Amino acid sequence: MPCVQTREVKLARCYKHEDVFPRLAAACGKWLWNEEKELRERDIKFNVEELKRIATESIGAKSCVSMVKLTEGKYNKLFKLVMDNSSVAIARIPCPNAGPAFKTTASEVATLEFASYP
């Protein structure tokens, strides 16, 4: 039986093939089944230049000199934007399968507020 390493835990765990649920295989970056469907659910189109403009404006920089994709999970894509004044912004773009944008963002804000409560 093949062994699948997952990105969901720090230590790699091995699963027997019959025990694996649809998860991203870390070794090859492919879905074990229904790959086209899984990729379609996570496909999001966004305006890169507009994202750079908003990030630049929010930090108070003049321009974005670098934008690098950090990671892509089941529900989000993360980007690191470096500005001309060496400031850094992290941008999170939610995938369509994450749920309604208002609810997912409200949930994250509530979690951060709870975590930072004295």
TrEMBL record:
<protein>
    <submittedName>
        <fullName>Uncharacterized protein</fullName>
    </submittedName>
</protein>
<dbReference type="GO" id="GO:0005739">
    <property type="term" value="C:mitochondrion"/>
</dbReference>
<dbReference type="InterPro" id="IPR051035">
    <property type="entry name" value="Mito_inheritance_9"/>
</dbReference>
